[in-house]
Amino acid sequence: QQSGRRYNLFLKRRLRIDKRHQSKDSIFFRDGVRRIDFVLSYVDDLNKEWEKKLERRKEFERNLQKAGLELETEDKKESEDGKIYFVKIHAPWEVLITYAEVLNIKVPIKENDIPSTVENPLDCMLAPLRLPEKVMHPEPDYFTAPFSKEKQELYLINDESTFFSPSMRNRIVNYILTRCPYGTEEGKKKFGIKRLLNNGTYSAAYPLHDCQYWKKANDPNCDNERYTLYMEWARFLRFYKEQPLDLIRKYYGEKIGIYFAWLGFYTEMLFLAAVVGLLCFLYGLFTMDENMSSKEICDPAIGGEIIMCPLCDRECEYWRLNTTCESSEYSHLFDNVATLFFAIFMGIWVTLFLEFWKRRQARLKYEWDLVDFEEEQQQLQLRPEYEAKCTQKKKNPVTQEMEPYLPVTSQAVRFCISGTTVLFWVSLIIASMIAVIVYRLAVYAAFASLMENTQTLQPISGLLTPQLATSVTASCLNFVIIMILNFLYERIAIWITDMEIPRTHMEYENRLTMKMFLFQFVNYYSSCFYVAFFKGKFVGYPGAYTYMFNRWRNEECDPAGCLIELTTQLTIVMAGKQIWGNIQEAIVPWICNWWGRRKARNNPENLYSRWEQDHDLQIFGALGLFYEYLEMVIQFGFITLFVASFPLAPLLALMNNILEIRVDSWKLTTQYRRPVAAKAHSIGVWQEILNGMAILSVVTNAFIVAFTSDMIPRLVYYYAYSENEDSPMSGYINNSLSVFQISDFPERNEPKQNPENFVICR
């Protein structure tokens, strides 16, 4: 029986091979002439909704054909698993020229004959970083104009089948799909592929990649752009090469092209900040032995004789200052004169970065024909959801045309609900941060008594102080809470933005961006702000300590200062986020596609079709790029807002970004379906967010130098109190500590034991 089954399977495959002589790893219809511009897939599940879905599909496909599109269906028997139907869509010339005019698509009228006069004297030195000219500039530079059906003779139409690039073609087909009706339900006109995907009528809708990424297609008409992108751009070994931005734009569209242009420019600019930050760190490292403060703390005759007051009530004991010798030495790495210079340098760097990017963006805008893009956006980008839900219409005073609109009362109610929801979630973050602070206060005493009484901790007790142990565990706990809240809030933010019914796609993205960024800003940076500006500032003094909720005594900074704790917090959250982000971006899609790649290897090419291969890949999604920007802008905050506490932050960011460019390009080229091409003339609202963070970074770094580091107290001592001309900073430690009579301790604060009968503590 089993051998009979195998024989039948063999016959079935043999029949399928014989049925088609040409390979199914093709981007054309069965005739080998008409190009596949889009693919829809669905599964025929025989449940109670089956008939309704069938009717919707019939009506939708009938209306697509009325719009001029040509369809070809692959039966489920032809698919690998025998369950999925594929509907291949081709846009003929008439449809393309009609919608090219509607979408105001610019096409070539004449090849650019203006000679390029700019010569870079460094070209010879930069040759190893360059890519071949054909990869960098895949097509000649043209003078262009918006397409018009009446003036076809003006355009350079050499071949109708290749005049519109595949990315233009899939953009046109997607425009038709998002607006095509499929019937009336509950008295309302229903339309759009998005709704059909949501209700399960279709399982997927996507344009095709032009070939497999690891080898060129057999078809001589194929451009093999995916293969070129993989070989020249998406492999990590090409990390030192420039990016082929024109090819990225041609294959994926301007929106993705401008993201990679920004990411590449940001990474280039980070190189200078990373070098200066590393030099500042090395200065701290080489001057560590000359630091008078840590010398005095480590000296048994000075630090060993200074008795410090207990750091918690009852359980903690008196301790000698020289027990913090190692942590005071390490704090000098980050808290030195070079830190002040680096904070000033980063204030200048961030301004130069933003201004140079505006210049680079303006150049791209010109090169990619996006100069008058904003006017096009206003007319073209009305969201189908807005048109569907806004049943009322009013005359536009400018265009004199009737347009759908949302009444002011409805807008006000939606904004109130949206604003309240965002405030609730921001409050939730603040509550979670307070919970982490309570954790710090509650476990500090436990760590202090544990480290005093445990002999096994002796070898690391000098480095791992109770403050540092509490700070490290609290930072890790805080990172876990951040990730959980992020996961939950993402879904809430999308839901409330959908509820607001924004008018255009750009408006939708801007609103969602602001909501997500506000939340992420509070989520990621609140703990750093606490350590930098609040911790250790409201402690009180022996005999009159301040308490949170009248129960937990407010925590003090590490004896070496709060700056080393801020550095710890920043390192854990920043490094943790980067590692987690790369795992999510690279490893998860790779595992998900593992099975699909196995099928591709185990089946002959003429069985495992191009549309099935792409169907098995991950979905990039409308918000795919949004998350990429968000990740980078949060990182930008870490390297600008708190850089005075951690000069190595730009170096970490640089190493991450070199990897990030290749991870993003690799996953987009190999692990994801081809995204629908979209236009964009800038990085959008992210520019305003970066400007806001640049201004805030100047303030935060000034505050860190003034209040968190020991820079100002040291300078005051140096100029006002120093008595030793040969060693101006000697005596600083003794001068910075006040004296307390132990006999004045209230019973609540007094330690249980005082075996050495100390009289005073500092």
Automatic annotation (TrEMBL):
Coiled coil residues, start to end: 43-77
InterPro entries assigned: Anoct_dimer (IPR032394), Anoctamin (IPR007632), Anoctamin_TM (IPR049452)
Name used for this protein in its record: Anoctamin
Keyword Glycoprotein: yes
Anoctamin dimerisation domain span: 28-245
Gene, per the UniProt record: Ano5
Membrane topology classification: Multi-pass membrane protein
Transmembrane regions: 259-286, 337-357, 422-447, 467-489, 516-533, 633-654
Residues in Anoctamin transmembrane domain copies: 248-724
GO cellular component: plasma membrane
